[in-house]
Amino acid sequence: MTRSDRLFITSLVSADVVCTCVSFVAAHWARFMSGWFPAPLGHPRLDQVLASLILISAIWLLAFKWCGLYEIRRRISGPNEFYAVLLGVGLAAFLFICLAFLAKLTWFSRSVLAIAIGIDVVVVTFSRYALRTLQASMWKRGFGQRRVAIIGEGAEARSLADLISSCHVGYRFHGFLMPSPEPASSNTGASTQCAPDSFVAPRETLGSTDDLPRLALEQDVRDVILLPDVLETQQTLDLVSLCASLQVNVKLMPNVLDIMKRRGEEEDFDGVPLINVSEVPLRGWNRLAKRGIDIFASFWALVLLAPLFVVIALLVKMSSHGRVLFAQERVGERGKTFSMYKFRTMRDGSGNLATTTHTSRDDPRRTWVGTLLRRFSLDELPQLINVLRGEMSLVGPRPEMLEFVRKFQKEVPRYRDRHRIRVGITGWAQVHGLRGDDTSIEERVQHDIYYVENWSLLLDLKIIIKTAFEVLFHRNAY
Q1: What is the mean pLDDT of residues 132-149?
Q2: How far apart are CA 323 and CA 317, in angstroms?
Q3: Per the confidence metrics, is the pTM higher than 0.70?
Q4: Which tens digit of pLDDT belongs to each residue from 154-197?
């Protein structure tokens, strides 16, 4: 950890303590001293609340630490920060309630805690956003960056170097390192390594991995990234050992087999360990739990949003002649087709064209109401009916039209894998801004496959929270 990293973590801890203390004091004032709420039984003294702030701060910091809020993260989005803070504050509040119950704290007020939680989530999120913005600005100006060397060569190494140089996340590309040449074999037939002069080294070449001690001491190289299949297994182990002694971080870029093994499930085959890479987390009880949440959430959402449905239906009818709901054939789980419902956003008579083409920015077929509905994704609300019927889920890969599925299956690797689970109203690709016809289908599929292979209820919750941010602030919806 660099000095700038330690300073940033210290700033985060200090800001969290201040924000939490201010939240509890403000909550006590709002509940008992503002006159906004009646207090017939009296109220705890302010000095009791102030005296408890040390205990409250300790519990909050412990919960935040457990939730990973003090880890060094080179890049984290606003929704991810909000999600982590919400989880941390929730855990801290639970611990505090348990302690208050066991210790029989007489001054404890549940209403004050509820108000403090709401205030704390908001002010901690904003303070962290401000600190991370300041940190990113410092990185952009070259302060506090860590020098990174890449072990490898070729187009992949060059692309990674360009990515590091273009992303202001606290790293600075310093140069390339080549594998150390192996001693010449006594067998005159061949050697296990090419001679150093058998390739043209990139201009930013710093030397070989043997030069790492010098680079770490003299040029302050703190991180090395090893590309896949550059070193043999024993060479990789030696490199990790060397870097550990130099306090240099080693990052390994995985290949496809590494990724598959990491998410695979180990099986014992009569004493022989095997890794099953075909299983997905969403099966058995997990699948049942997700379906139960879908039924409960979609039912109550349809009940609570019924007035909004009526208003939208009237506006659609006023904007142009035609049906209120637009049904379109889409491909769902295991390649099965179903009718997906949306509020109609185009003029009557555009339906046939919409089944074979994507919408485009400034599409002339849209009505004025349709433009508004698409901007805030309100046209997707009838898909709650599809969720209740079991054709869709709240979260999952977005369903595609049959013609495009047939096309993409031939062109995009592993496209079929996204149909191993129920499709969803929102998904991992959508909350990363991959919406609309002008985004990469390959990148969308990669995000969908990541969701399929790494599903969890917490990931679903994270996607739903991020979806709210996307609906409000994303400009790629049309």
Answers
A1: 78
A2: 8
A3: no
A4: 787 888 888 777 766 678 888 888 887 665 444 444 444 444 44
Give the tokens for residue 103. Answer: 């210790």
Give ranges for CATH 3.40.50.720 in the chain.
146-181+198-253
Helix 78-103 vs helix 457-473: angle between axes, to the nearest 10 degrees?
130
Q: Give the long-range contacts of residues 191-200, CB within 8 A, separation 24 or more.
A: 192/232, 199/153
Among 81-85, 324-328, 402-406, whose mean pLDDT is lowest? 81-85
Report which of 97, 109, 102 is spatially closest to residue 41, judged by C-alpha positions.
109
Q: What token pair was written down for 19?
A: 């924000």
Q: In the 3-class helix/strand/coil scheme, how is the chain assigned residue by residue? A: CCHHHHHHHHHHHHHHHHHHHHHHHHHHHHHHHCCCCCCCCCCCCHHHHHHHHHHHHHHHHHHHHHCCCCCCCCCCCHHHHHHHHHHHHHHHHHHHHHHHHHHCCCCCCHHHHHHHHHHHHHHHHHHHHHHHHHHHHHHHCCCCCEEEEEECCCHHHHHHHHHHHHCCCCEEEEEEEECCCCCCCCCCCCCCCCCHHHCCCCCCEEEEHHHHHHHHHHCCEEEEEECCCCCCHHHHHHHHHHHHHHCCEEEECCCHHHHHHHHCEEEEECCEEEEECCCCCCCCHHHHHHHHHHHHHHHHHHHHCHHHHHHHHHHHHHHCCCCCEEEEEEECHHHCEEEEEEECCECCCCHHHHCCCCCCCCCCCECHHHHHHHHCCHHHCCHHHHHHHCCCEEECCCCEEHHHHHHHHHHCCCHHHHHCCCCEEECCCHHHCCCCCCCCHHHHHHHHHHHHHCCCHHHHHHHHHHHHHHHHHCCCCC
Please state, in angstroms and rounded to a whole number, the distance separating the CA atoms of residues 448 and 429. Answer: 6
Burial of 235 (0-12, 13-18, 19+ CB in 10 A): middle
In this structure, CATH architecture of domain 146-181+198-253: 3-Layer(aba) Sandwich (3.40)
Instruction: Please tell me the predicted confidence (pLDDT) of residue 357.
Output: 54
